Amino acid sequence: MSLEPGSRIGPYEILSRLGEGGMGEVWQARDMRLDRTVAIKTSKEQFGERFEQEARVIARLNHPRVCQIYDVGPNYLVMELVEGAPLKGPLPIAKALEYAEQILDALSAAHQKGITHRDLKPDNILLTSQGIKLLDFGLARLRREEVSLLSTDADATVAKAITQQGHIVGTLQYMAPEQLQGKDVDSRSDLFSFGCVLYEILSGRRAFEGHSPASIIGAILEREPAPLDVAPPLERVLRRCLEKDPAERFQTAQDLKAALLWALDPPKAGSPGPRPRPHWLPWTVAGVAALSAAIVAGLWVRSPQKPEGLAAAFIVGAPAGTMFNYLITATAISQDGRFFVFRAAADSGVVSLWLRPLDSTSARPLPGTEGGDFPFWSPDGRSIGFFASGKLKRLDLVGSNPVVLSDVVDGAAGTGGAWSRDGTILFADRRGLFLIPETGGTPTQLLTADASRKELGFGYPQFLPDGKGFLYFAASSDPALEGVWAGSLNNADKRIPVVRTPVKAAYAPPFSGHPGLLLFVKDRTLMVQEFDARALRLEGSAVPLAADVAMHPALRGAAFWLSDTGLMAYRAGRALDRVKLVWRSRDGKMIREGAPEDSWTTLRLSPDGSRVALGRRDIGDPSDIWILDVERSVRTRFTFDPQADTCAVWSPDGRQLAFTSSRSGVAQIYRKDSNGAGGEEQLSDGPEAKCLTDWSRDGRWLLYNGQHGNTTDIFALPLDEEHRKPVPVIASPFLELDGQFSPDGEWVAYTSDESGRQEVHVRAFSGSAIDRRGQWQVSNEGGRAPRWRGDGQEIFYLSLEGTKLMAAGIQLNAESAQVGLPQELFPISAPSDLGDNRFPWDVSADGQRFILEQATGSENVSPLNVIVNWQAKLKKEPRR
After folding, report:
1. Catalytic annotation, pick one of 119, 624, 753, 842
2. Which is higher by pLDDT, 285 or 355?
3. What long-range pairs does 388-393 form, CB within 8 A, spacing at least 24?
């Protein structure tokens, strides 16, 4: 079968060749129907029967350690594309045994289905970022009682293919004696081959060598391999694997796995037989501070069940060629403590979620997670849920693209998800808490944000061990009602207060002799207190665990994360999202820096382009508004209230600034002279929080986002003192944000998720009621935060993930809008905090210069601190 890149084979487009052997070729291809990347294994004509056999065998297996088959065609197989490298030695003992366990898990699954691999060797064992994958079942054999399930002559046909003209096809060094002698083989033959593989990854050399096939066969049949420098219990297990007589070997893969665990940690005299080893990975991570990899591995393997065990700490930095990107909401540890998922920005500017096994020093980006946030793990560690583009998505980490589970409403009040063991996902957005099956469907609203409690939304839900109770953060403009609450699926309306805190909390289940604990932040210190998950209450006294934990009050986030297995990660520091201001030309070239690195948020150019109004905040402190003189690079503080001030907009003449502040308890609109003189005037009132977005060029109207039922709409506030009653500009069941007046004041550009994701639209504005002349979509692949050119003939906006600056021409008349095809102007290194930072950029009136907040990589200065067995750091005090 002749293939080349660009050719088609069935519904698959060939991309590149991955490898070639005597049996055929392996190609990387694109499944045009499902839009996924696959591996296609093509066969030479005389081996068609072998490929049919392999397809039938693999189809019987469904195991995460076995490469999956997707499709079968004439002389080709379509399989899961597994990215990795063949297993090689020598490896540290802990690492070799970790991989050995995974190989045995795959073999056990095959043997239980009556399948003997018959070609187990390092080249058929791929090491991926998620562990071991077992490949190539082309020589596999089924038990006689299973053969009829395939075909009456399937195994006989394949047996013929194993030999050609008197030569054995395969790698001799890993074949069991009975296989070389032409005798019947069974699962014990695979265990001999496994012994050869284990010997090689421990020593870096093959167990049986020779200068010719005959000498290799002789070594396997007659001689023992050279001794290894390993502990005697492990040497005995290895020797038993390599017994010449199958009856003298281990009889099952599970027995062999138990013996390996026992050899690694033998019981003391008088204790029972082999005890199960915890399923977490041995820890041999580079960068362990003041500890060698061997010590960490020993602590991790031998001590997790001992309360007196030591804690071990190390540091995790950003992957090479990337920088961390707003970890405070975009980080999660799998429940078994084996994997991190976090958000990082590559040099290309693409921001996505990355996966790092904790026993590895490398990480890889997860395709399809661009712009992802608030990740959370499935209980089995095989999938993650996350939020992106106004959707709740699920990604299965093996051979899958993300799938959409539900629409969500994102917002600064926080969000997040939790995954129960019965397959239910609990997720949050500003509307409330929702339940949805892990397969997707229509969400069921469990809890609704209560306006009487001034609730702004919910976030950071977490299931408790019984799968019914849960914790969540409730954001409220009333500090007395803001904090972590508990609820139950059995009685969702009953809200139980747990702890007052400005940011999330996390529950740690009982582990290593310690009770269940709640971790929460008080005065920027991470505290720990016993928590009764049945009674849903704190007990005893809180004790400090870590100081100066990074926080984000606007998103109610704190930079600490837990597994169920005694693993904790946290970040320290005050400023998480420091950015600098830069000026760029229309082609993306740097003109000059606008302001040095700081914690800037939303920004707005004055009408004459001489000044910039900026939000500035520090972690743990409220935000304030500053004014930057563009030419002199001088910054002046404009507001000084202890409550948060943000979202400033200029009056048409530049003499005043209007802004949003929560100084009255609920975010309202104020204005003040831009020279700082005089007092402040409150322009709005009412129970609903408001977020200011624009001031019309004629000076008559302010635009703001306001709560309307369970969603957010756009309102216009007239500045006529006699008729200061808000007018709805857009009111719908959908989320509308970012309203911007056209220069003539007759149109409004805005963001809406009416189409299922956020897109930029325009709508006419009459000033008296909702204009019914229709709306026109500007963006075509997602968009947000629009700005008008000064003449009203072009709209600029950010791509949905905030990584590109886009532009679309527009022609307006009294009744309609003609919108041109959007074009990318240039990629940008967006600030990480796009949750509540809706406008991290602005444009000059002529559309030729852009001022943008640019991520600086400051998060790399503050890496992740990881602690193994962190509970051991707590001093147990007698309960009073």
Report:
1. 119
2. 355
3. 388/801, 389/757, 389/758, 389/782, 389/800, 389/801, 390/735, 390/753, 390/756, 390/757, 390/758, 391/756, 391/757, 392/417, 392/425, 392/427, 392/436, 393/368, 393/369
